[in-house]
Amino acid sequence: MTRSDGYLLEDRQTEVHRQSGAHRQAEAAERLDAFADLFDPATFRHLEVVGVGAGWRCWEIGADGVSVVSWLAKKVGPTGKVLATGTDITRLAPAARPPVEVCAHDIGAEEPPEGVFDLVHARLPSLGVADRERAVRSMADALRPRGHLLVEDTDPALQPLACLDEYGPEQRLANRLRQDLRKLPHGRGADLAQGRTLPRLLRETGLSEVRADVCFPIAAPACAALESATVRLARDQLVTAGVATAQDIDRHLANVAAGILDLATAPMILVWGRKV
Q: How far apart are CA 110 and CA 174, in angstroms?
């Protein structure tokens, strides 16, 4: 099962297990942390609009860290519940205390947990699900009447550049390597235009009041951290596939470390709706 958002070259939970060596695990964790730094603020803003409050029952799907889970736990308080699930729950262990319950669950293959929820939230890049339509239906089915669903997914096809301002050789190299990175998931049949489909998918489940927004970080420190960790993690694949040389990769990583690139991420599309 593969998944890509232009940075996440494959399912981020399985990636750690497939790559050998402690440095590979550290690079994968660095990417997860950078991803959270970039997109958590937008997630929190939208959850504030939804109105998460005391006593709510929330399902956080595909959780790959404790940031969103901890935020929800503070909002729902001791009378609420936050169910945090993922195929790999290693990083969730620190959050496993009331009102948070942590359990292994594959949204792409298993039925939703028992019960209904006031809120269901997921970032699909963290899931690696092959059948996104089925996953979105499962999320919607788990909502109580008038419950809220917030789903996020990236759409790299909307913006293919690492550096929007391509004014020099360093920026041209960055953009070429970004295209090289995207050749890898394309070779495995990945779809880079998925975020834009979410409004339709939510409407097709019967949700009402469907709305969408986009988060597009540029020149943030976490953009550089994400770029560096991703390129280092994909280095062997790039060289083996013959799409980039080791010299080009080393030069690009040095440029990232020097802080001379205004790096951009793939846009994150956030879509929310409400059950009738």
A: 40
